[in-house]
Amino acid sequence: MTSIYRSYQAGEEIPVAPRLHKRKLLKYYSREAMAAVLTASEFLEGKALPPRIPFYYASAYVENLSFLEEVFSRLDAYPDHVFTAERFLLTTPPPVNFKMMRNMVPCFISIENQLTGDSNFIVDSASALLYAALTAPGDGPVLMGAGYMHADGAAEAGFALVQPAELAHHPLLGTDVPAIELFRQWRQ
Amino acid sequence: MAAVITGIGACSPLGCSFSESLETLREGRPQIDDIRNFPVDGYPYTAAGEIRRNGEVVRTPVGVDRKMHFLELALKELSSESAFKERYTPGQLMLNLGIGIDYFELETCMESEKISLDILLSNGLYHNIAPEMKELVSRWQFGAGYHLFASACTASAHAIGLSWRLLRRGLAEAIVTGGSDSMIFPGAYLGFGALGALSASDEPAPVKCHPCDLNSNGTVLGEASVVMLLEDSSRASGTPLAEIIGYGSSTDAYSVTDPEPSGEAAAWAVKEALDEAGLKPEQIDCIHLHGTGTVKCAPAEYNCLYRIFGERLKEIPAYSMKGQVGHMIGSCTALEVLGVVYSLQNQVVLPTVNFCTPHPEAPFRMVTGSPLHTPIRHILKINSAFGGHNTALVFKRWEK
After folding, report:
1. How much is the average pLDDT of B118-135?
2. Burial of A181 by CB count in 10 Å (0-12 exposed, 13-18 middle, 19+ buried)?
3. Coil, strand, or helix at residue A168?
4. Which of B42, B253, B387 sits opposite A101 (nearest CB)?
5. What are the CA-CA distances from residue B393 to residues A27, B54, B83 (Å)?
6. Nearest to A110 by CA among B100, B261, B392, B151
7. Whole-angstrom distance, CA of residue A158 vs CA of residue A58
8. Are B65 and B71 in contact (CB under 8 A)?
9. pLDDT tens, residue by residue, B345-362
């Protein structure tokens, strides 16, 4: 197994832009997306992946709040504080609304690295991520990843290339521990 | 071992029980209408497939996360019908669900002096699904773990597919799987609409969603909670509703929203599912499509399936449920399993509601008018999602 883990403090620049193949998508990125895409790019650089390698990613639930913060900052400009459909649509263009969709982070990682194999997108669970990898089709390695964006904007990301058999009997199977914990542990 | 579905609990526009849902499917009545659960004055989109009980839209007060409310009802029905809590210990039961985005109340939050995340969180206007699901899991005693999947329109397919893999490899004994989602609240409904996938036509709500039709102009959101018990046939207490025999998935790595038009990656998911099932393409009797009613969906689905079935694709009966009920996003595959079960049990392919004009770039054999009676042993069910996820499940009529 090989793995990588990176963390970025609140407000710290996440220099993903220079590494992007599809830079026009950057406007849709949350800080988790920036951290995850950058970490995946570093991890996979120079590695020859099998075609259609399975890729499973787990994301923490707090990612959704970044979408709401952007919406609030825009709606707060109306002093009468009346919610209308017209105001919402005027102030929250698609780049903001895309962040509402939970699965954008693995989508960006897949696009950047042309990952087209078996996939799954998991909400914040080491157990689900392990089970997905354990039951992956084929007998080759799988790519696992996880991201976690904290309420203050700090972001973590981790990736690993593993053989599924390495994960059998993992102590986090069946637990409700966040997926990023796997990568924190594998870093040590 | 055979992984079989032995019970279903369902709350959807089709009704608030499995039996009522099958009856509404049989009748083919459109269940999409103008939204009743909150005021939509000034909204550019007003149609949705809302959950109904005895034909009436279920209204929930502000503050209630509909997907959690209906999930509870669906679980109660499943528990009552399948007796999973009596037949398995908590340590044998796992919960794997597809879900959507969290419920939040922008409109209520805006009434406060300062609009902020703190106000939203401290006043219970944001329902984080993680702790709510943890409480539900504890109360229902799913002791073998619970896992949530959020790949948008393929979330429940991913949940069901992984459940099947776990069961087949002996990593779980009994799994309640499916999906629960509702984006029928202002922030989500408008936000999703802004992404451009909803029908903005001026047609009446019940005929807005045209799957696989030349005049497809967008989809309509719906909501549903559907859970099913997946277990080894040797443990089943009654006659299984259907058997799952194959599953595959893939990713387009192409676009944030659009399907990859050639269908290449999506076809890999179908091939993987067929290989897992040990089937050749000619053994598929019927295809239940994703069929959203968006402009780009049907041609991409056709190109995907043509890679597998070739010219025979034009002869295989195909069906989409979304014209009748709308698009349930995180629970769409789970709800559409009801259509699969109906087809397998009654040996019919239902007409696709609102399909009128064949699409030259997607000349599927859609059924219109009356149900098509035909021998059906194997059904292919495909779905795809924003973000480029593709899934394929193969179902088999239960045979001892």
Report:
1. 86
2. middle
3. coil
4. B387
5. 35, 31, 26
6. B151
7. 10
8. no
9. 999 999 999 999 999 999
Q: Is B360 on the interface with A (CB under 8 A)?
A: no
Place of tokens 């037949």: B87
pLDDT tens digits for range A13-68: 999 999 999 999 999 898 999 999 999 999 999 999 998 999 999 998 665 577 78
Q: Average pLDDT, whole number, for chain B?
A: 95
Residues of chain A with C-beta less than 8 angstroms from the C-beta of B254: 111
* Ordered domains of chain B (ranges, CATH): 3-235 (3.40.47.10), 245-396 (3.40.47.10)
DSSP-H helix ranges across chain B: 18-27, 66-82, 84-87, 106-109, 117-122, 129-140, 155-168, 186-194, 264-277, 297-309, 322-325, 332-346
- How far A56 CA lies from chain B's nearest CA (Å)? 11
Q: Which residues of B touch A116 (CB under 8 A)?
A: 250-253, 265, 268
**DSSP string of B14-69, one letter each residue:** TBSSHHHHHHHHHHT----EE--SS--TT-S--EEB--EETTEEPP--TT--HHHH
Residue to mutate among B169, B255, B256, B393, with most A CBs inside 10 A, is B256
DSSP, collapsed to helix, strand or coil, labels residue B374 as: coil
Q: What is the architecture, at CATH level 2, of domain A2-63+102-187?
A: 3-Layer(aba) Sandwich (3.40)
Closest chain B CA to residue A136: B165
Contact check, Cβ <8 Å, A100/B42? no
State the pLDDT at residue A62. Answer: 62
Q: Tokens 């914990």 — which residue?
A: A181
Is B358 near chain A, with CB under 8 Å?
Answer: no
From chain B residues 237-256, the ones with a CB under 8 A of any chain A CB are 248-256
Dihedral, A102, B155, B234, B349 alpha carbons, nearest 10: 170
B344 Cβ neighbours under 8 A, 6+ residues apart = B241, B242, B376, B379, B395, B396, B397, B398
Q: What is the CA radius of gyration of chain A?
A: 18
Q: What angle do CA A168, A170, A176 make, to 5 degrees?
A: 130
Q: ipTM surpassing 0.90, yes or no?
A: yes
What is the rounded CA–CA span in Å between residue B255 and residue B92?
A: 40
Q: What's residue A64's pLDDT?
A: 53
From first to last of its 188 residues, chain A has per-residue pLDDT tens of 999 999 999 999 999 999 999 999 999 898 999 999 999 999 999 999 998 999 999 998 665 577 787 788 888 888 888 889 999 888 887 777 777 788 999 999 999 999 999 999 999 899 999 999 999 999 999 999 999 988 888 999 999 999 999 999 999 999 999 999 999 999 87
CB contact under 8 A, B134 and A176: yes
Q: Show the beta-strand stretches assigned E in A13-150.
A: 55-59, 119-123, 142-149
pLDDT of residue A61: 66
The average pLDDT across B233-259 equals: 95
- Determine the Cα–Cα distance for residues A142 and A52; give it in Å rounded to an integer: 10
